[in-house]
Amino acid sequence: MKDKISKLVNVYKKYGFIGFFKKLYAYIKANYLDKISFKVFFQKNKYRKEIKNILNSNYDRIILWRSSFGYNVPLFQRPQHIANNLAKNKCLLLYEVTTMTDKVKTIKKQDNNLYLFNFNNILLNKLLMQELKNINKPKYIELYSTDWKLTIEDIKNYINNGFRFIYEYIDHLSPELAGTKELPQNIIQKYEYAMTNKDVYVVVTADELKKDVVKKRGEVNLAFSSNGVDYNFFKNFKDDYQVEKDYLNIINNGKINVCYYGALAKWFDYKLIKKIAKTDKYNVILFGIKYDESYDENINDEKNIYFMGSRDYKILKYYAKLCDILIIPFLLNDITKSTSPVKIFEYMALHKPIVTTNLLECLKYKSVLIGKNHEDFINKLEESMALKDKKDYIDLLDKEAKENDWSEKAKAIINLIKKDEKKW
C-alpha cells in the first residue's frame, strides 16, 4: 500500500489535479473494476474453447509475459519487440495488457503465436490456468525486474504449477525508475529470489547488470541480450508522410539540428543541452515525455531548445530522420551506467551521426562518438557533421544496426531456455 501511495503522489506532481483524477480513475477501472467480467461469466464455454484453440496451435513452448507495460502504448520498446520476435520463433506468447492503454477486456490475436491477454480478468485467467494443465510443453513466466505488480508468491505459484521463471534484469533497481519514494517490496523480493535461485533464467541487458548477477550466482542460466532495433521498420518510409509545419520551420531556420528522443528525467544532462544551445549553432530538439519534474525545473524558455512532446513510435522516425545529429545526453550515475539505450540502435538504423556522453553501454560501438565531458561533447558534434555524408561511416552505422536487430536479442533468450527443454 505504501508503494501505491508513493506512486499516486508522483502521478499528482506529474499530471496536476485534473490529470491525476483521470489517471486514478483509469487505474482503478483497469486494476479493480475490470477484474470481474460478466461477459466471461455468462460465456464461459466460449472463452474456454477459444483458449483451447490457441493452445492447440503449432509452437514449441508457451511464455506468459507478465508485466503491466501494455502493448499499444506510444513507447513501443523492448517488451513488445521481444514478444514479437519470440512469437516468430515458435513461442506461443500471451502478452499481458492493461486496459488503461490496450482496451482488451479478454483476448485479442495480435499476430501468429502472439496474443494480447487480460490476466487481470480473474475468471479468464482461471480458465487459462486450467487449460494449461493439459498442455505437455515447456511453460514459462517472464517479466521485467522493474515489475512491481506481481508478488513473489505469484511467481512461486506459477513455479508450483510447472512453469519456469525468466527474469529480465533490464535496469538498475531504483525508486526513480519505479516512480516511488522507496523501491517497492515486490521488486526487491523478486530480485532477491532470482539472485538466490540458480534455476531461474536471468536475462541481462547491460554489462554492469551481468557483473551483479555473476557476483551473486555465477553464470549459470544467464544470457546477455541488450536492447536493439527493428531494422526493417527503420528502413521503410512513406513518401507522402508530412510532419507539422511548425517543425519544418524549426529545422529549416539555418542551424544544425541536434535531436534526442526518449524520457526527460533526472538522469538527463540539462546543463549540457543548455551549453549546446548557447553556442547558437544548434537547434536542440527534444521529443518524449516529462518522466518527472526535472525538465520544468531546469529548462525555462531557453533559446534554441525545443520540446516537441511525444510522438507515436510509428511516426517518430520521420522527425528524427530530418535532423542532422542524434544524441544521448545522459548524466553518469548508477541508472545510466546500467542502461542499454534502445534509441542508440534506432539512431544507427537511421544512418545519422550519434554523439553520447561517456555511457558504458555506448562505448562498445565504433559508430558512436563519445563526449567525455561537456566541452568534448560539443566538439564531437562538430566532428560528427564531417562524418554525416561519408560512405564508410554510414556503412558502419548500418552494420552495427543489423547486428543488433531484435531478432538476435530474442534468439539469445530462446537459446538460454531451450537447452533444458528435453527434460519436459
Task: Kindly state the percentage of residues in helix.
Answer: 40-55%
The major beta sheet can be summarized as:
8 strands, mixed
Strand content: 15-25%
Distance from first to last alpha carbon: 39 Å
Q: How many extended strands?
A: 14
Q: Count the helices. How many?
A: 17
- Pick out the low-confidence regions: none
CATH topology value of the largest domain: Rossmann fold
Q: Would you tell me the structural class of the helices and strands? A: alpha/beta
Strand order of the largest sheet: 3-4-2-1-5-6-7-8
CATH class of the largest domain: Alpha Beta
Could you report the average pLDDT, rounded to the nearest whole number? Answer: 92
The structural domain count equals 2
Q: Give me the CATH superfamily of the largest domain.
A: Glycogen Phosphorylase B
CATH architecture tag of the largest domain: 3-Layer(aba) Sandwich
The coarse overall form would be globular
Counting copies of identical and different chains, the oligomeric state is single chain
List keywords for this structure.
single chain; 424 residues; alpha/beta; Rossmann fold; 8-stranded mixed sheet; 6-stranded parallel sheet; 14 strands; 43% helix
